[in-house]
Amino acid sequence: MKTIKASEFKAKCLHIMDEVAATGEPVVITKRGVPITEMVPARHRPKTLFGVMKGSGVITGDIVSPSDEGWNAERD
């Protein structure tokens, strides 16, 4: 993780923002050697969770026909 002094950050702010957006690597900004804040790329969140998992499931085989496997449902 890259670390930069606050005074240097002020001078190169726009360049650092472009760098973080391009690489995805966060940058820690320090003041007098103490970490103050961390610049990370923005995450894009969907407005709603409806449909978020669309296309992630896979159907293999026939899901309608009964299977040939026996089923034992005896209770003790």
Report on this model:
The protein has 76 residues and is α+β, with helices and mostly antiparallel strands. The protein has a domain at 2-39: YefM-like fold, CATH 3.40.1620. Helix content is 24%, strand content 20%. The protein is built from 1 helix and 3 strands, in the order βαββ. The chain has a 3-stranded mixed β-sheet, covered by helices on one side. Helix 1 (6-23) links the parallel strand 1 and strand 2 (27-31). The longest helix has 18 residues, at 6-23.
Spell out the blueprint of helices and strands.
Blueprint: E1 2-5, H1 6-23, E2 27-31, E3 34-39
Parallel strand pairs: 1-2
Antiparallel strand pairs: 2-3
List keywords for this structure.
single chain, 76 residues, alpha+beta, YefM-like fold, three-stranded mixed beta sheet, 1 helix
The number of helical runs is 1
Annotated CATH architecture of the domain at 2-39: 3-Layer(aba) Sandwich
Q: What fold name goes in the CATH topology slot of the domain at 2-39?
A: YefM-like fold
- Percentage of β-strand residues: 15-25%
Largest sheet: 3 strands, mixed
The H-and-E topology, N to C, reads as EHEE
Write down the Rg.
Answer: 26 Å
Q: CATH superfamily of the domain at 2-39, please?
A: YefM-like domain
Task: Compute the average pLDDT.
Answer: 87
**Helix fraction by DSSP (H/I, runs of at least 4):** 10-25%
Side by side, the strands of the main sheet go 1-2-3
